[in-house]
């Protein structure tokens, strides 16, 4: 019962109709967010969509033009960053190069004039959390990117914040190190039980780390959900396209029959699709987009489809990728689609080979055209 769960869920961070207008740009346009205590929450979106501004509004580095930010139930309107129970890890790490690892981590506590013994104890604890005890006396220039990232994390954690804000925390690392640090971030989140709010433009990173993801587009939240909800049940064409590859076909609704919808594409194909979002009142003639994931399309050399969608076309490219083949097909309608399937061909067909593309109605989702 989701209502019962919500009644007991403690919210750590709330945004209420928040806007942020800079001189020429409106970076955030009426964002509402409920971030639960202890969850790993990601804000995902393309460059310039307003992710960082949203995080900075939570941190208190920016003030909303309208709307309100609450942390642990308290309005933050007149609370400066250093008085908020949050700490930020920046993509650039922002370490002090002239201070040792130990001093970098102790810095904030010295400013707060904590007793010497308390500082020592907390720094030791933070170093242990990020497995950097052995390198406490090094300087940032003597550390690898991953180690610098750990120091930046320790420096934020030493203040014992309720909420950790992470701005593209792994953006500066190479792919292998990035994967390793993803695992460490997940472990840290699990061990500490803190609320993590991470900004990223990396879909895979958001999918693999988060309890919930909010997808931002042009200053607004397009959808909030668990990774599988976002991937399998996107609500808009933008979300479907941004999270993983998809084939988008634009068109208009011809007829509705229960959860099945027949759509006439702009290229005059009749596609049978399924609606996911029962709250949207779809009606004939409405403009929609159909999303079909490349892995849900099957190519055959013979016309062998009984029901669902089957369209004739010609192969344009075939790429062998070990576990699967990646194909581009030009359909008779003129639409180009990509297909990713296990290599079921006896031998790889040549480009220009006629093929039949098949997918079931439940594999084509009707989405709001955004
Ligand atoms: P990126 O992934 O590239 O960092 P983002 O999604 O984090 O992008 P923001 O940095 O929040 O996006 O920026 C959103 C919009 O607001 C952009 O158009 C940006 O140019 C504008 N903007 C951000 N900060 C300022 C500022 N201090 N002054 C003026 N405009 C700003």
UniProtKB/TrEMBL annotation:
Keyword field contains Mitochondrion: no
Function: Part of the ABC transporter complex PotABCD involved in spermidine/putrescine import. Responsible for energy coupling to the transport system.
Any one GO MF annotation of this record: ABC-type putrescine transporter activity
Subunit text: The complex is composed of two ATP-binding proteins (PotA), two transmembrane proteins (PotB and PotC) and a solute-binding protein (PotD).
Cell compartments where the protein resides: Cell inner membrane
Reactions it catalyzes: ATP + H2O + polyamine-[polyamine-binding protein]Side 1 = ADP + phosphate + polyamineSide 2 + [polyamine-binding protein]Side 1
Protein name as catalogued: Spermidine/putrescine import ATP-binding protein PotA
Membrane topology category: Peripheral membrane protein
Organism: Aerosakkonema funiforme FACHB-1375
């Amino acid at each position: 019962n989701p209502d019962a769960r919500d009644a007991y869920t403690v919210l750590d961070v709330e945004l209420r109709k928040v806007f942020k207008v800079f001189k020429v740009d409106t970076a955030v346009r009426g964002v509402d967010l409920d971030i639960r205590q202890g969850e790993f929450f990601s804000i995902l979106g393309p460059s310039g969509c307003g992710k960082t501004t949203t995080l900075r509004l939570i941190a208190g580095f920016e003030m909303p033009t309208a709307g309100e930010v609450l942390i642990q139930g308290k309005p933050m309107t007149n609370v400066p960053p250093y008085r908020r129970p949050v700490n930020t890890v920046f993509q650039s790490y922002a370490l002090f190069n002239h201070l040792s690892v130990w001093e970098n981590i102790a810095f904030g506590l010295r400013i707060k004039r904590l007793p010497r013994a308390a500082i020592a104890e907390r720094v030791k604890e933070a170093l242990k959390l990020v497995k950097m005890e052995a390198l406490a006396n090094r300087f940032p220039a003597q550390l690898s990117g991953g180690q610098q990232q750990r120091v930046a994390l320790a420096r934020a954690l030493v203040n014992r914040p309720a909420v950790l804000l992470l701005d593209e925390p792994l953006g500066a690392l190479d792919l292998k190190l990035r994967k390793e640090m993803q695992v460490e971030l997940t472990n840290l989140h699990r061990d500490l039980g803190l609320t993590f709010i991470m900004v990223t433009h990396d879909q895979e990173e958001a999918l693999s780390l988060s309890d919930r993801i909010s997808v931002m587009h042009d200053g607004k939240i397009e959808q909030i959900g668990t990774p599988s909800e976002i991937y399998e049940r996107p609500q808009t064409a933008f979300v479907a396209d941004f999270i993983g590859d998809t084939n988008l076909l634009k068109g208009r609704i011809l007829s509705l029959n229960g959860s099945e919808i027949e759509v006439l594409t702009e290229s005059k194909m009749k596609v049978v699709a399924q609606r996911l979002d029962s709250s949207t009142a779809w009606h004939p003639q409405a403009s929609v987009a159909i999303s079909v994931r490349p892995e849900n399309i099957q190519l055959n050399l013979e016309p062998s489809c009984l029901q669902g969608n089957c369209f004739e076309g010609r192969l344009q490219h075939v790429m062998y990728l070990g576990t699967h083949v990646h194909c581009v097909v030009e359909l008779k309608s003129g639409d180009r689609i990509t297909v990713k399937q296990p290599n079921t061909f006896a031998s790889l067909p040549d480009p220009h080979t006629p093929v039949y593309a098949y997918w079931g109605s439940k594999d084509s989702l009707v989405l709001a055209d955004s």
